[in-house]
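quick one before i forget lol
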Amino acid sequence: MYRGELATTKKEVADFMRQAVMKSRDIAGPAAPLVPFADWDFYFIDRTLEWTRRERIAGVVNDVKVPKGFVTDLASIPRPFWSLLPRQGRYTYPAVLHDYLYWQQSCTRAQADDVLEAAMEELQVPVPQASTILIAVRMFGGGAWDNNAELKAAGERRLLKSFPSDISTTWKIWKQQDVFE
């Protein structure tokens, strides 16, 4: 695509986003394999995302494998703070790991928060950003943890088996389809 030319297919949008992320990798950290829904509030993972703690520690989560098709809202930063701390940055990859653990709830909330902290440290997220994110997660993450449990109990699912082909598809519309594992 040329500068100023609009992407018209899901593949073109996904390719464009991957190229942009790869170009910014030095400042943004590793690329998370994300494809947005049309509302840009939710994204899905288009390939498996894995993390292994550099130094294994007993009693904590040392490995996280986010399957292809997981739906995330990235870093759950309130809109008024996006100019200071955008939803995407060097912390995006750790945020997706954290979202997955908060959704699955296969570990404790404290263990999920520890994964976020360890992954941000390994990816060298600047200390002011990492500290701000961790303080917010520890203060307000309980609401997200509880909300995820309620959504799951009500039947919401977040692991897709098929993906939208129309770039104008929102998460609100897509989650009403029979598209889940």
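fyi The helical segments are 10-23, 25-28, 92-104, 109-122, 127-153, 171-174.
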